[in-house]
Structures are given as C-alpha cells and as structure tokens.
Design a protein that fits this description.
By secondary structure, the protein is an alpha/beta fold. The chain is built from 11 helices and 8 strands.
C-alpha cells in the first residue's frame, strides 16, 4: 500500500502560549488557517478535561472556519462524546488522558477498556465521525480495535522518538508490523507523537501509514522559522521519505 501521506498539524500548543498570559493571542485558529495554507491536510486539537490549552470556543471556531478536516482528540468520557456529537468534526481520536500528565503518555488500552469504549465508538460511527484509537503498536490493541469497529488506529510513536541505534530500529519494526496487521484487517493507519524533521523519515516510509499527526515540534520550530515554513519543511521531509 502506497500513496500520498497526509499531514495533520496539532495546534494545541499555540493555545498553551496564549493561555500563559490569559490574552487572546496567539490565536490557535489563525495558526490552523496558516498551517492549512502551508500544506497541512488536516488540523488536530485536543480538548482536555481541564481545558489547559484548547478551549470549547476554539473547537467551535475551528469547526466553523476550517476548510480542511478537523480531528478532535478526546478522552473516553461522556462529556467529550457530547461535544464531538455537537460539533461533528471530520474525525475523533480517542486518547488516554490523565490530569497530571504533561502530554499524552502512551497509548489507549483498547483491549482492557473494550466495554467502556464500545458505546463511544458506536455513537461516533453512527454520527459519521471517523473514529480513531490512539494505541501502542501491539497486536492485542489492534485486535481490540477490530472488535470495536474503529475504522482508524493511530500508532503511538513516542517510544520510537526517545530511542536510538538498534533499539530504534527494532521499534520501527514493531511499528511496521502493527501497521501491516491493521491494514490487512481493513483499518486505516495513522501515527504520531514526538516526530521531528530528524526522525520522521522511517515512520513516513512505512507504506501502510496514511497520516502523521505532528504538533509540539512544529509549534516550537515556528518560533524560529515561522509556522508556514515549518509545515512546508515537514511536508517535504515526509514526501522525501515516502519516495
């Protein structure tokens, strides 16, 4: 399986900078529109329970103003389900969420939470919202996604991003095997977390991966080169790896 690899840009940390001063800027919606103009294929935003960065108003504005798909990252709660059903984003990625974490730590335990997740996945599927489960590259989790009827999985690349040498090579194999298993069973494969210009290549080269979601690095790089240039450079790196 080959083809164009999509880039989803996560704009959470534009909102983090805004919220540090309690002002109205920088505006994450403006950042989303700039990213779209620079070549992003979609925008990702994580509405957390504690609203530490993205807010309800941000989601409403993104849903109203974007002309490219909006991917709402959400915890597996009834509150977030209601918000997704109200705004009808193109996609909803269910992620694990702990109040004390700085960023999403590891993948969702889709296998262990099957009964809890079934209701959410069914409701989102029924609303024509593309459901994605953010999981570890593990056969047990992919099998759970199949049973749940999730059309998409997003493989967690955080461990890969922290490794080097042979350990990183082995993690690429693990991600590749998971991607192949998911695709073989009709599930679309995405990946993300911790990806940069320097490490995106091996993940972008996995042929079954159809989309990468990247945020923190691009927002940080934007301080030096601007968001549009950061998005274009990532797009170029992904395309080069895809060959």
């Amino acid at each position: 399986m080959t083809g164009i690899l999509r880039l989803g840009v996560n704009i959470d940390h534009v909102a983090t900078v805004r919220n540090a001063r309690g002002a109205g800027y920088p505006d994450p919606v403006r950042a989303a529109l700039l990213a779209a103009d620079a070549g992003a294929d979609g925008i990702t935003a994580h509405l957390r329970e504690d609203r530490r960065h993205i807010t309800d108003d941000d989601i409403a504005r993104l849903a109203a103003e974007l002309t490219i798909p909006l991917n709402l990252e959400m915890a597996a709660t009834d509150e977030m389900l209601a918000i997704a059903l109200r705004h009808r984003p193109h996609a909803a990625c269910i992620v694990p969420e702990k109040r004390e974490e700085r960023t999403t730590e590891g993948g969702l335990d889709a296998a262990g939470q099957h009964n809890h997740l079934q209701h959410l996945v069914s409701e989102l599927n029924g609303a024509n919202i593309r459901v994605s489960l953010f999981i570890e590259p593990d056969a047990r989790q992919i099998e759970a996604a199949i049973r749940l009827g999730a059309p998409v999985v997003e493989l967690h690349t955080g461990r890969y991003a922290e490794l080097d040498g042979e350990a990183r090579t082995e993690e690429v194999r693990r991600l590749s095997d998971a991607a192949a298993l998911a695709a073989k069973n009709g599930i679309e494969v995405h990946a993300g977390h911790g990806l940069t210009f320097d490490n995106v290549g091996p993940i972008a080269a996995i042929p079954q991966v159809r989309e990468l979601n990247i945020g923190h690095f691009l927002v940080g790089e934007a301080l030096f080169v601007g968001l549009d240039e950061a998005v274009r450079r990532m797009r170029d790196a992904m395309d080069a790896a895809r060959g």
